[in-house]
Amino acid sequence: MKILVPVKRVVDAALRPIVSQGALSTSGLKFSSNPFDEIALEEALTLQRTLGGPAKAEVHCISLGPDACTDVLRNCLARGAQHATHVKVPEGNTLEPLAVAKILHGFVKDRGFDLVLLGKQAIDDDAACTGPMLAGLLQWPQATAASRVQWSPETSRLSITSETDSGEQTVSAPLPLVVTADLRLNKPKYVGLAKLMKVKRVPIEKVDPETTMSQRLEQVSVGEPPAKKPVTMVSSVDELVSKIRDLV
Amino acid sequence: ASTLTFLETSQGKGLTPSSLSVLSAAKQLKNPIVAILLGPDAKESSSTLLEKFECLGLEKVIVVGDKRLEHYLPELVSPLLKDLLSKGDYSHFVMASNYVGKSILPRVAALLDNQPVCDVVAIKDPKTFVRPIYAGNALSVVKCSQDKTLISIRASAFEPVTAGSSKTAKIEELNYERTEEVDIRWEGCKMVDSDMPDLTSAKIVVAGGRALKDKETFDSLLVPLAKKLHGAIGATRAAVDNGFCNNSLQVGQTGKIVAPDLYIAAGISGAVQHLAGMKDSKIVVAINNDPDAPIFKNADLGIEGDVFEILPELTKKLP
């Protein structure tokens, strides 16, 4: 089995980009792997162990973006992925989810993957589009926002439980398919320096994007959300009750 | 040109509250509106829609009653929507940005070679939309110049259409023909049975965090207050992860996005991810024993103190 894990390089989850004069700036900020994609990779590695290790199932990570994406991919190798591919996209070129899905589509078809596991959304654009778009282009089944994934050797189906609006639902599908990972799927393990040093010389494949496409949406401006008025602190429940009454 | 809107029903409960917000968002696009309803409840819900809700501009409701569409599996629904959108003279497509919307809209868009605008919180004009990015820390204004504009809307940002009637609209039944076979099986679901109001559409939300200690304390402190206010219960990720309540009650970047008239945050410190789910609430009341908790910077009213004392007293004293 061949598992592909696309990983996006994003502004670190603990930081915020700077918004000024109608634009967004990320210069000088620390970048990391999209946390949901890290969860997807952890799940891919778990599945790999269940299936009998790298000889039975290989995990391949891919990242689209500027040269700095190699850091993200190096981290994936340190976590235990066997292969890594960097699709070179010049700094400053924004790839919309549709463009990402098309590039991944080509890659999946050319290399014959059986399963694509990725985060349910990226924490920068919060679009949550790439997974279902890729599944649509491939005409594969999809399971989004997975909180539990189980492989059944008897039926050769993957069973996926997702948190929905009113509870949870479980679907099952045979391979190939696309699964997107939610927060509660697992807790990615910490990668120590020793592991990072070990993969320092493992080659990362570089490829040029197969399709180039113009952006479909134009970002007119970026603004800050309206500022909140300062809080009014009260000192007793009685005061709180009367203030709530005035306001609501 | 017209706008196709995707409406949902929830088993036995008819149209979902978010569907009513989808219709009001569609009204802002100023085109005639066509609604589509799928699954075994579709027929009945279409009559309810015409008899009980006022939606100016609604011209037609397409009903596809096929049982196979009951669970809105994107593999089955997407080809159907793709066909409708590519054949009709639709300029816009609107659905809710909830679990169903997030699984269906991108798939349909990919089939149409289209980039959708997801999670819209405001419509500036029929081509220009506002959507939050970076967990709501920034608002992006996006212009779409594709032949079709596909959007999902955040239900909390659009007032639902009001009671009334839309009797001039026609109902049209359509057969579902499954053209392509994708092997996906719906194995089952666990619905949360609750007599509390729906979290995403409630006017009042009472939410608790890790400080509420355990499930018993969470229930005994929050439920009476929520009941008295006819509000819904919400929670932080930490509260859900510690088993205080079901995960469908999680409010935040990856949980529910709510914007009630009143949001009471009890024992919630105010992590960025939680704030992303409730910062658009009209009035936020924060109760916390840590005066430096970030939640106070995002609240309108704050009281420093012990949730175990304040919540029961508040429940008693609120009218």
From TrEMBL, chain A:
Its cofactor is AMP; FAD. One of its GO terms (cellular component) is mitochondrial matrix. The keyword Electron transport applies. The lineage of its organism: Eukaryota, Fungi, Dikarya, Ascomycota, Saccharomycotina. GO terms for molecular function: electron transfer activity. It is found in: Mitochondrion matrix. The keyword Hydrolase does not apply. GO terms for biological process: amino acid catabolic process; fatty acid beta-oxidation using acyl-CoA dehydrogenase. This is Probable electron transfer flavoprotein subunit beta. InterPro entries: ETF_a/b_N (IPR014730), ETF_b (IPR012255), ETF_beta_N (IPR033948), Rossmann-like_a/b/a_fold (IPR014729). Binds 1 AMP per subunit. Keywords: Electron transport, Mitochondrion, Transport. The electron transfer flavoprotein serves as a specific electron acceptor for several dehydrogenases, including five acyl-CoA dehydrogenases, glutaryl-CoA and sarcosine dehydrogenase. It transfers the electrons to the main mitochondrial respiratory chain via ETF-ubiquinone oxidoreductase (ETF dehydrogenase). Residues 21-216 form the Electron transfer flavoprotein alpha/beta-subunit N-terminal domain. Belongs to the ETF beta-subunit/FixA family. Heterodimer of an alpha and a beta subunit. It holds the Pfam family ETF.
